[in-house]
Amino acid sequence: MTLVIRDVREHELDSVLALNNAVGPRILALDATRLQWFFTYASYFRVAEVDGVIAGFLIALRESSNYSSPNFRWFRERYPEFVYIDRIVIAEPYRGLGLGRIFYCDVTSYAEVRVPLLACEVFLEPRDDAAVLFHGTYGFNEVGQQLMDGVGRPVSLLAKTLCSFEFVRDTYLQAGSGELPDLPWLAERLHANPAQGLARASRG
């Protein structure tokens, strides 16, 4: 099996949309407009390609994103800097192979050189004990709960402190050029737009 984690390409958005909407109630449905917004503005939008087939994806955003999700807003009201995991989806034939952990390792690597906190949420109804256990064993702690506005389902709001960020901040972001080294694995997405302009996304 050949696995590649890489940035999504625009011509793959239809496949990503179908994958997202095939999951069911565990993930909120998307439409093409919302997915295009993520493609344009998400700081992190990568797919897992297994033997040439898209087997999953993960989307995450910085705190500066102009994103209307009530869960994202909950974190922005309480934390000055974070990367927020909006959704992760693994196609049915590829579940149980560890792709979720690989994605979380990759997004943690992205986040820990930029922010002190990685955030996400899991639905409490219907309760998914596998998701709760996964996040707990990956170092996330519950920092709150809320009834998701517009959806009416309770969520557990989770956060993980990124211990490496202090070193990166002191060594690179607040010293020298004030930037990360110019290395491919530290680069931002070409389509990411931190300024966000006036664009907004629907709740997700």
UniProtKB/TrEMBL annotation:
Boundaries of every N-acetyltransferase domain copy: 3-163
Pfam families xrefs: Acetyltransf_1
Single GO term (MF): acyltransferase activity, transferring groups other than amino-acyl groups
TM helices/strands, residue ranges: none
SUPFAM superfamilies: Acyl-CoA N-acyltransferases (Nat) (SSF55729)
Gene3D superfamilies: 3.40.630.30
Superkingdom, natural source: Bacteria
Protein name, as recorded: N-acetyltransferase domain-containing protein
